[in-house]
Amino acid sequence: MNSQKHDNHKFRPIDEVVSSYKEELNTALNSLQKKLQHNENIKGEFEKTVRHIESQAQHTERQIKQQFEKLHQFLRDEEEATITALREEEEQKKQMMKEKLEEINTHISALSHTIKDTEEMMRASDVCFLKEFPVSMERVQISSQPDPQTPSGALIHVPRYLGNLPFRVWKKMQDIVQNTPVILDPNTAHPDLVLSDDLTSLRVSDVQPVPDNPERFDCDECVLGSEGFNSGTHCWDVEVKQSSGWRLGVTTASNQRKGGGFFNNGVCSVWYDPYSVWSLVYGWSPGSGFCVEHKLDRVRVNLDYERGTVSFSDPVTNTHLHTFTTSFTHTLFPFFCCSSSLRILSINSQ
Boundaries of each B30.2/SPRY domain copy (predicted)? Predict the structure, then answer.
């Protein structure tokens, strides 16, 4: 039966309507199937994230225990060293007093003999008394010399061990504990980057099984510092001598991390790429940062937020490389990018 007009209404055959509706529903069904597959993929990513969270927690807990064990061992060593020093002083002071005791015993013995001899002489006959008097009187006078005294400094120097003990141990701990001005954020690291356990160095490796979370770089092999700066002055040194190519600087938290284009906006950086490998891959150019022409061992980054400056220098030769001057209105994060490995130096090493 063909479509026909009837009372200003248009009628269609049932099979034609069913076919049209099925086609419309099939299109919607295909869309739902794609959505289902997409949601399955998201579910897989969520499950991967859960496993990664568990792995992160376990690894972090092990690191916490190891770090605290080092601190506990340091405190045990300090306790042992302090007690050893105390016991050594105790033995030294006791030995000194032992010698003084021997001296006073000798003195007491001599006095006892003198007293005994003098008392016997006092009971002697007048002739013997007069004969022995000069010698006896001399012995009595000699024995009347000053008695031995307790020597100065004989007691334990208690303040040496207890005075400001926690503070002194804390100060000593500062000399051996590393303090690094920038700590890397592993949640931002490109999958090709492996961070050290102390989060101060990075190296390029095979792709790591990490979640594709929003904070993570997926194109540029970069990682951000964990702390952002929105005021004050900040300085950090980076060892770059092991890397054939690298890029360092600061960026805004909102700068694009997915896909290309990270270096197009919101970045103040210096870079070194002698073989133009990254320039070809990522489109690096002098217009997107300052290109260093010579291989360096270290690079120092100085950020002055209020003055709006980011300065780069070579701390080994004390040579200025470049300074960016602008007006900062957003929180800035240090970023690091390399072809092999980089290391942020501790304040102790600068």
Answer: 162-350
| Predicted local distance difference test score (pLDDT) of residue 261 | 79
Averaged pLDDT, 174-185: 90
3-48 pLDDT per residue, tens:
444 455 567 788 777 888 888 889 999 999 999 999 999 999 999 9
Length of the chain: 350
3-state SS record for the chain: CCCEEECCEEECCHHHHHHHHHHHHHHHHHHHHHHHHHHHHHHHHHHHHHHHHHHHHHHHHHHHHHHHHHHHHHHHHHHHHHHHHHHHHHHHHHHHHHHHHHHHHHHHHHHHHHHHHHHHHHCCCHHHHHHHHHHHHHHHHHHCCCCCCCCCCCCCCCHHHHCCHHHHHHHHHHHHCCCCCCCECHHHCCCCEEECCCCCEEEECCCCCCCCCCCCCCCCCEEEECCCECCCEEEEEEECCCCCCEEEEEEECCCCCCCCCHHHCCEEEEEECCCCHHHHHHCCCHHHCEECCCCCCEEEEEEECCCCEEEEEECCCCEEEEEEECCCCCCEEEEEEECCEEEECCHHHC
